[in-house]
Predict the 3D structure of the following.
Amino acid sequence: MPGGVVNRISAAPEFASSLAVSFGNPGIFAGTAVSGMVIATHCVAYTPWVGMAFSVAAIMRVWLLASLRTV
């Protein structure tokens, strides 16, 4: 991810890299918040399912963006 951003913004690679990291932080927050809610309402045994759901969603998003880019 950061490599793709840096390649597109060649004039300011440090800025592009910091943007990539900054946009990753909300994803970490969302995963932590959802996992915390699952632990609070159910039990810790369900957290792998939450991780799997986030992984599937990320793969689907990458696939969708790749398919839109080729069109």
